[in-house]
Amino acid sequence: MSLTLYQFPISHFCEKARWALDFKALDYTTKNLLPGQHVKVIRRLAAQSSVPVLEHEGRSIQGSEQILTYLDEKFPARKLTPVNSGEAQAALEWERYLDKEIGVHVRRYVYQTLLQHPSLVTGFFATGGPFWWRPWLRLIYPKLVTVMRKRMNINPATAAESKQRVLMALERLNDSVGDSGYLVGAGFSRADLTAAALLAPLFMPPQYGLNWPAALPEPLHSEVAALEPQLQWARDIYARYRGA
């Protein structure tokens, strides 16, 4: 059994895949990629250039949702998809909603501020890479920022809109947690994992694997601090189920 995850360590969608692999106690290797240069590597494996991509037994599975589904099919122990068909459909619907309304919008909202701090971003992107990644990233940083802003549609107006989308998603999320403490049914599922993984950059858990700063730069720090009550459920799920 050879499992290889191609990823950006900073990516919260990659964190979804890492968490699923770790939750199932699977032995896997990570291949950390350099933004921009990752395209050649990923295009040899999959149709799109996005990460994460899981390689297993000659197959390439692209996208965090698809990876979670594949892992449940191939390694059914500690299933993340509920056994009950209705609950399974509900968990998938939650996951797709969270990918769109939290995953995409947390990324845009956070990067609007982070991209103004080159040393922080280059440190994140260079995590797990060879020594030359950091100076190389510093060299190409202006071009990298231009490309990222264009591809992810990051600007002050879209970031403000994304912040509101995250706030609305957080309200729906917290209102929907049942008496069980979970989004679907009576146990931990891919819905809970997705929510906590995609929100994790806002509360910076050590298990994520990044060397987080003591505090996010402003205005993120103050804005995220005000969200702490809405983030508590996700923080608790992360603490209970993410492990070391």
Give structural notes.
The protein is an alpha+beta fold and 244 residues long. It has two domains: 72 residues, Glutaredoxin, CATH 3.40.30.10; 157 residues, Glutathione S-transferase Yfyf (Class Pi), Chain A, domain 2 (Up-down Bundle), CATH 1.20.1050. The chain has ten helices and four strands, in the order E-H-E-H-E-E-H-H-H-H-H-H-H-H. A four-stranded mixed beta sheet has the order 2-1-3-4, with helices on one face.
- The total strand number stands at 4
Instruction: Assign a percent range to the helix content.
Output: 55-70%
**Adjacency order of strands in the biggest sheet:** 2-1-3-4
Q: How many domains make up the 3D coordinates?
A: 2
| C-alpha Rg (nearest Å) | 18 Å
Q: Distance N terminus to C terminus? A: 23 Å
Count the helices. How many?
Answer: 10
CATH class of the largest domain: Mainly Alpha
Please describe the structure with a list of short key phrases separated by commas or semicolons.
four-stranded mixed sheet; 244 residues; Glutaredoxin; 2 domains; 4 strands; globular; alpha+beta; Glutathione S-transferase Yfyf (Class Pi), Chain A, domain 2
What's the gist of this structure?
The protein has 244 residues and is of the alpha+beta class. The chain has helices at residues 12-23, 38-43, 64-74, 85-114, 118-125, 133-151, 156-176, 190-203, 220-226, 228-241; strands at residues 3-7, 29-32, 53-56, 59-62.
